[in-house]
Amino acid sequence: MKTKVFLKTVALSAVILFGSIAASAANKNNLIYNSEERDGVMVGQTVYKMDGGALANYMKYSYKYDDQKRMTESETMKWNSTKNAWENDLRVCYAYQGKSLTTTYYKWNSKQKAYVLVPDMTVTMDNPNL
């Protein structure tokens, strides 16, 4: 009886070990995601990168929604390891009108300390699911 329990424990440990190795191998960029959810929607996500044996800050995302739980804004920040701080990178705004969705992109300008519109990336499309 004790031998069977021991063998099952060893077999389960081996499966878990090989599963974690396979998952690690599949994640070629060594990125680890930590999502934050509120009221059933994702409001933020921090991405860490494996640096040796430790996790290092990499990217940070935050999301805003309207009263219908449609995303209205997403903001991306990058980690600056020299300054040891998060820095703004990109903001995308989503506007809904009927069956149309307009996506507007803004890139952070560090000299102006503000987001600047990138008109070439602004897109309006029909969404039949709306």
UniProtKB/TrEMBL annotation:
Keywords: Signal. Residues 1-25 form the signal peptide. It comes from the Bacteria. This is DUF3836 domain-containing protein.
